[in-house]
Amino acid sequence: MMLTRFNPTRELTGIQREINRLFEDFFGDSFERGLEKAWGPAVDITEDGKNIYLKADLPGMNQKDIKVSVEDDVLTISGERKSEREEKKEGKFYRLERVYGQFCRSFTLPDNVDSSKITAEYKDGVLTLTIPRTEEKKSKAIEIEVK
Questions:
Q1: Assigned architecture for domain 35-132
Q2: Looking at the predicted structure, is the pLDDT value of residue 9 above 60?
């Protein structure tokens, strides 16, 4: 009688391969295209007294695909990460985990910033906005006589 080593994962690997094949056959390309959806970049906001700094993770994007605007004291960062699948018409993708598509993040600015002097720099996949602070407006208390 010949002894063979039992490998418990052999059966599981075969089952996983079959399930993956079933998903590919059923969903086809539409399953992978489903990864093109709205997403939002991770953002850090810090300050040092003179400025507020907003850093947004936007790896793999082109500078021309990023838009920064301010309207009614609302700062908006928007853009689109284009899918490499559209760029590479040949070849086969085995796994698509990165998210593509349009994004939009908005932030309400405090009263004591100068939105006309905001600067933006995109370097190494990180968008850094520098938002200069202005002097705090001192509130003035007025007493009103009740008649």
A1: Sandwich (2.60)
A2: yes
Token pair for residue 135? Answer: 């002097």
CA 101-106-110 angle, 5° bins = 160
Provide the pairing of β-strand 74-81 with 101-108.
Answer: antiparallel
> What is residue 113's DSSP assignment?
B
Is the pLDDT score of 35 beyond 60?
Answer: no
One-letter amino acid at 130 equals: T
pLDDT per position as a tens digit, 41-72: 999 999 998 999 999 999 989 999 999 999 99
Strands (E), the chain: 43-47, 51-57, 66-71, 74-81, 101-108, 119-123, 126-132
For the record, the structure tokens of 130 come out as 């520098």
Measured distance between the N- and C-terminal CA atoms of the chain, rounded to whole angstroms: 110
Where exactly are the structural domains of the chain? 35-132
58, 66 contact by CB (below 8 A): yes
Q: How far apart are CA 121 and CA 43, in angstroms?
A: 14
pTM: predicted TM-score of the whole model, two decimal places? 0.65
